[in-house]
Amino acid sequence: MDSITSLSATTLRVSPSRGWIRTSLGLSLIFLFLPWEGWGLWIRPDATALLLIYWGVFEPTVMGAGSAFLLGILSDVAQSHVLGVHALTYSTLYVLVQYYRPRILSFYRLNQVLHVLMLLLLTQWLEGLVNGLLGYSWPNWAWWVIQPLLGALGWPFLPLLLERAPRPAAPPQSP
Q1: Were both Cys, which of 56, 72, 131, 172 would link to 87 (CB 3.0–4.6 Å)?
Q2: Where is the chain membrane-spanning (predicted)?
């Protein structure tokens, strides 16, 4: 019992502020407004989906399915897609992230890359399937593989960017 009472507040992780989470997701949407063309469109990772996975895994109480749906609608508007395609894929992604969250957290960061890759591939596949059913042309293999692969390869570096965020002060330690 002494080991539990001697646990200091500095060893506990302080969650980032909701403002920082919203700012990071907003910046990922601004990333979509950059003038991508040619191969840039094929190699641009889905930063919004990657952040949705990250915050869904490490801060599940802040994000919700409604937030994922709203991010999808905003992403559709930013990319001039059919309204609702990204909303469907991001909502599905969020549900899968919550389902696989304990499993993802049981692995080291580098081992989590495979789980993130599968989630991003599924998201890409679902988006392509919906676009195909709506009558749009099927993208080539690079769209199906390169974007999720680059997003998954960025997973180990994401904490380096996001965990430097301003955090609220830790509650005072009781004697």
Answers
A1: 72
A2: 20-39, 51-74, 80-100, 107-126, 141-162
User: Is 156 domain-assigned?
Assistant: yes
d(CA 170, CA 12) in angstroms, rounded, equals 9
Residues 6+ apart with CB under 8 A from 62: 15, 18, 21, 55
Question: How many domains does the structure of the chain reveal?
Answer: 1
Q: Structure pTM?
A: 0.83
Range(s) of the domain holding residue 63: 17-162
* Residue 38 included in any domain: yes
Answer yes or no: is 136 within a domain: yes
Q: How confident is the model at residue 9 (pLDDT cuts 50, 70, 90)?
A: very low
* Cα–Cα distance measured from residue 117 to residue 114, given in angstroms and rounded to the nearest whole number: 5
The residue among 116 and 1 whose pLDDT is bigger is 116
